[in-house]
């Protein structure tokens, strides 16, 4: 557990990013509530008065700062480390929601928070060292090695099958189609973002990488991947409940990103089997915490907003196949809900 | 993660012990059900027909085998490793209950199982090596070192305060009093059981330890500690709901045992900070899984047996101060319940 300076910077940036993004949810929600009080029209039913509310804009800026910190973190530490730490933003927002918005956190939600923190600690303790990179050409070489080309090829084929065969057939009835597409693209987004971030970091340090076409190629790939990912994430969130999409997306996106990073950057080379096992375990613990937080959040919501909670069906599995109309209706029932979906859209983007 | 042969033996024995104990619950419960069908009188309302049911006896024997395996495991591997693995018996019984007794496992209960397993993996991966011990005199020396005498002294003082001051006052209204006493005594039980087990192991290996008075002293201490612990565990289980007592007891007992073992056997000496952190995290993950399993078990039970489940109160915290009469009534409502309390009494004993 001896951290290089770069790894440390990456961890701190990833943590800061989670704090900023988590806080931004709360500030934006407070802004929305205030706007609703002033104008009497809620965002969920078509009001745009929140655009005049300074608090909402402060929330927006906080989120952008968080996303930038996240982007820079990728330039310093392995994706295997940075991506799972993103789950901490959920804790920050859950804790602040309880303190500032006086929303009640389910006792099992507290357990979910504890698990996210514990899992993150395990991941951080066993995080691999970032291999020093001195030029964008090196990253290009890593991205064009056989194993990674195979991964990239499989991802692209899978995405095509999902987009052209499954999406028209059951994209609106099976939550795994849209979230699958954006998770698959997301793993490529992170790899290209990391490549671009590292190039820009090297440029800032005095080793200009903008003279190489590879840097511009990565920039183009970032644009394509992020736009596709965002597009399908929006589709997923428009079609299904945030509480269903978020944990599934988090699981698939983080898993695929770790796989991609392990193949491309060989994060696990030189690590012993114990460390790798611990990292995977830490990751599963964070996932469990995330699922627990989301499931219990939904319980609280169901009971307070809809009233008819049955103890045998708060499970994720039973809600995997929501029909379009039904869940979309849920989304519009309450302003904070659709707004949260809106902000989560950006939170989960990279 | 290089295991010594002894550590490996200890881990396998601890796992086997969990399988046996977990299975024994199910066999005994099946035996009880059969006995109830044959005689028409349930154990909960005073029937003893289960004593004529061979299945019940097979369950009893399975449990005793499991307890012996557990006892022997302590002679081979550190308590820091063996004690937390005890949680796996809960998983075995939960899984078998679903398969054999067709009891429905809450989806969050499945998550609890996953957490117990993942936490156990982390603990096993980072388990310290057992220091080789060649004589009971060595263990006696460890038990009489200043730090451990201080621990033992504090435990005894605390137990006295709890027994003579708190037990008469609020033993029947606060679940922490009785469970506290048996957890404190439990940590001393495990230490003395480990000492005795190691002496017997050495004797079997040809180095006769029965000639030393220390072995007999440990035998006496085991008896005193286990009897006190059992006595107060029975009181706790008679007064409060098993679903309340079990997780609290597991948390306190395991924590105190780890503390005692770390002080007495210096399990953490020579381990780096990363391994120790991971072990603690793994332990917290197992605890969370246990809590999740117990809480959701209670939910299922509440909904199927009592009908009036409110989503805001399945928490442990809200049930910490059950009154005597109320919870005792629950205990007697259904035979499987009181029988399970009965078997858990033995499961949790050491």
TrEMBL record, chains A, B:
GO biological process, one term: magnesium ion transport
A family per Pfam: Mg_trans_NIPA
Cited InterPro entries: EmrE-like (IPR037185), Mg_trans_NIPA (IPR008521)
Compositional bias of kind Basic and acidic residues: 341-350
Location of region: Disordered: 303-350
Coarse class of the protein's main subcellular location: membrane
Annotated localization: Cell membrane; Early endosome; Membrane
Gene Ontology CC terms, in alphabetical order: early endosome; membrane; plasma membrane
Job of this protein: Acts as a Mg(2+) transporter. Can also transport other divalent cations such as Fe(2+), Sr(2+), Ba(2+), Mn(2+) and Co(2+) but to a much less extent than Mg(2+).
Name recorded for this polypeptide: Probable magnesium transporter
